[in-house]
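Help wanted!
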Amino acid sequence: MTTFQDFALPEALQHKLDALGFDKPTPVQERAIPAALEHRDILGSAQTGTGKTAAFSIPLLTKIMNHADVYGIIVTPTRELALQVDEQIRAFLSAKSKIRSVVLIGGASIERQVQALGKRPKIVVGTPGRIIDHLERKSLDLSGFNYVVLDETDRMLDMGFSAPIAEIFSHVSKERQTLLFSATLPKNIQKISAQYLQNPVRIEMGQVNSVGDNIVQSTQFVSKDGKFEMLVDALREHDQSAIVFMNSKFATEKMAKRLKSAGITAEAIHGDLRQSKRERVISNLRDNKFRVLVATDVAARGIDVPHIHQVINFDLPRQTEDYIHRIGRTGRNGAQGIALNLATRDDMEKLNDIERLINPNAAKSAHNRPAGKPARKKPQAKGRWRNKKSNRARAA
Ligand code: ADP
Ligand code: MG
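Answered by r_m:
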């Protein structure tokens, strides 16, 4: 087990970590801290609350304490976040530390910020707009800044900050180290990464609450009796490998048989099968020996078959969190995927729970409309979840 001692941090910093009860690094810290200490660029994704702030702050403070010429700038999407990051950094410093940080955010006195910048702080934390203001006034000179962090990058891009980010990068040192953190790594983030990072270490932690935006999700309301027909339609429409999720072991077996008699090759997988049998099913799926895997949640955990194009929730998951695990079986490695929920009127509450989990910031979703209508023909129409937003994974 890794401890902070393993990183050989400066004594004063180690002392602070102990005092703060940071006993051992979180998984993202365990990977990011040594890489950052080795001057590597980092492309990191991990859900909210996994300790990303310390993951980039601890190496920055270590470098500042050990070398004279390290300056760090941390760019965050919101004022609150900038303040939080600054607070975390200050908590790592002793009261008599000479290391200064300054927060550059809108809504606060710009004069005071100019004054603080005059003292050549080692650390700048700010939002793109205010950082640009200071660059334009020439109250901020970033040419010596060689440790650049983009925090919550997906959110910054959602907020339209890609031009200010480009502007900031044009001012910082060419000899820099760049760390990019994001809850998710959709295409636009990978593009930013390719633009500004050099050979980054990629750190991806289980993204429990997030759904890549390469997965198109939709919900089809249907009566219980109409479900099977709808399933067959959906499978025929795409004619590619798929996983159909069900909530009981017995039901998966029955469904596999039913699909086979409808002319669709299928196999069931569930927890009662012997391990060897399960492995055989998965390897046959991987080799395209059949098209549709009918699975329970437990059996499907961690299945990584690249060509799964479609995930269909024949039954919505009992545990809301399983939704994320289920649809994460498609869209592997950035491929396109589709997820379809076959929902009955009784599923409204569950759908809302799922929507809240994957999209905590959204107001009302498409699912909140009355469920009175019978099944519609086109699954993609109204029930489709706006993916850009679903893709946000934050605890608000
Ligand atoms: P993220 O940026 O990933 O959402 P934060 O950096 O805000 O997460 O950290 C979440 C909380 O966990 C903070 O209160 C932070 O102080 C705390 N924390 C971070 N790392 C550790 C650790 N190694 N041990 C104990 N608490 C930690
Ligand atoms: Mg954070």
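OP: Thanks! One thing I noticed: The domain at 4-205 is CATH 3.40.50.300 (Rossmann fold).
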